[in-house]
């Protein structure tokens, strides 16, 4: 049930994080507020394929 996903900054589109999600808990694409070292601030990171 656990799948690996990549999180990309919604501002600069850099892929900054790899994480695991539980498909049962998160059937949709996940979005997380994380620090982007390219934007030098916290931005919304979204799951990519
Ligand atoms: Zn960014």
UniProtKB/TrEMBL annotation:
Molecular functions (GO terms): structural constituent of ribosome
CC terms in the record's Gene Ontology section: cytoplasm; ribonucleoprotein complex; ribosome
Signal sequence residues: none
PROSITE patterns: RIBOSOMAL_L33
Keywords, in A-Z order: Ribonucleoprotein, Ribosomal protein
GO biological process: translation
SUPFAM superfamilies named in the record: Zn-binding ribosomal proteins (SSF57829)
HAMAP family the record matches: Ribosomal_bL33
Membership in a protein family: Belongs to the bacterial ribosomal protein bL33 family.
PANTHER family for the chain: 50S RIBOSOMAL PROTEIN L33, CHLOROPLASTIC, LARGE RIBOSOMAL SUBUNIT PROTEIN BL33C
Name of the protein in its database record: Large ribosomal subunit protein bL33
Source organism of the structure: Clostridium collagenovorans DSM 3089
């Amino acid at each position: 049930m656990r799948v690996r996903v990549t999180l990309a900054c919604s501002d600069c589109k850099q892929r900054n994080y790899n994480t695991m999600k539980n498909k049962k808990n998160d059937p949709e694409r996940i979005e997380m507020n994380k620090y982007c070292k390219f934007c030098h601030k916290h931005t919304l990171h979204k799951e990519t394929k």
